[in-house]
Amino acid sequence: MDGEVWKPDVCRPVMPLAASGPDLVVSDVRRVDIETLLEANEDEPLYQSLLREAESLLENNPRSAVAIGATAAEAAVKALVSKLAPQTSWLVQNLPSPPIFKILDEYLPLLLPPEAPRFDVGLIKNLKTAVLLRNELIHGAKAKLESAEVTSALATFRDIAWLCDYFSGTAWAANRVSQRFRAAMDLPTTVDTNGWFVD
Length: 199
Known about the structure:
Helix 3 packs across helix 6 (121-138). The protein has helices at residues 28-40, 46-56, 62-84, 89-94, 100-111, 121-138, 147-167, 179-184. 55% of the residues lie in helices and 0% in strands. 28% of the residues are buried. The chain is mostly helical and 199 residues long.
């Protein structure tokens, strides 16, 4: 106010920071991955940005968090299908698609090698529940949200997004999948027992 000393803006709301998954230790292998991504000058997938936005809204606006999280998961699934079957890209992006849990359960196994892990039955069930929650919120059938159901829905959407990255060829994305489904799907991982990434 005096033109010299900066003071914090007391009217500005505090923005919560959201982070998930184990801590990252940048090894030489990981550093090469990061440098390759930077040199390719590729943007982060939109669904990963949406997922972080959803997680940042968890406390103050849980309905928006669920809606945006579901959109992130749907975008991740569509991106994966487009990558695995490029000839379907136009259809995937322009026509209404079946529910994403149906795509993951019934269609994706047709696109992946036979030895690839299948999406866990429990994760598909959680996804159905999370998508139903989003639909009820959007269509006004549900007015009140329980904190546990919002947290569960976002965890499910997060697992779906990271699994889509994994099946797209980003092997280290398996580390970001929750431990329960990483183990159930027998995914390769470089997370140690303390929850640290190790390469």
